[in-house]
Amino acid sequence: MTMTVEKLSLHQRRNFENTEDAINRLRGVLTAIDALSQDTNALSHCAESDAILVLVGISQDLLAVVQRRHAQEWVGLGGHSDILTEAEEAEALGKDAVAADLDLAAKAAQLMADSISRSSSAPA
Question: pLDDT tens across 48-85, in order?
Fold first, then answer.
């Protein structure tokens, strides 16, 4: 995530970086679980291994939403992020918040629907 900021207190930067670190660790855990579940799924097509795949997909989609919200936090502190849309930046800055909320909610709902669709079309 490319972000810059001119005026940011040390504690705000530290808080942001601590959250960034936690997000990166969570991404690593999800990647490991996904790799293990793919291995398990290759050996056994059971409901449990299929459920793990679904949960990993949903978790990864939610992590993407958290990352965007984290970028909005940075923008709200005075930073800049290349991953946000204009609507998301406007929301982070308190401009046209209602429209931006609806846009983000629609994206989150679409991510969830796509994830569920992918999992239901996986071979049994």
Answer: 777 877 888 888 888 888 899 899 888 888 888 899 98
Helix, strand, or coil here: 99? Answer: helix
CA separation for the pair 83, 78 (Å, rounded): 15
Q: CA-to-CA distance for 24 and 15, rounded, in angstroms?
A: 14
What's the pTM? 0.60
Residue 27: helix, strand or coil by DSSP?
helix
Q: What angle do CA 60, 64, 67 make, to 5 degrees?
A: 130
Q: How far apart are CA 36 and CA 80, in angstroms?
A: 36
Phi and psi at residue 90, in whole multiples of 5°? -60, -45
Q: Inter-axis angle of helices 97-120 and 47-76, to 10 degrees?
A: 160
Does the structure show a pLDDT above 70 at 40? no
Q: What is the dihedral of CA 69, 23, 80, 97, to 10 degrees?
A: 0
In the DSSP assignment, the letter for residue 82 is S
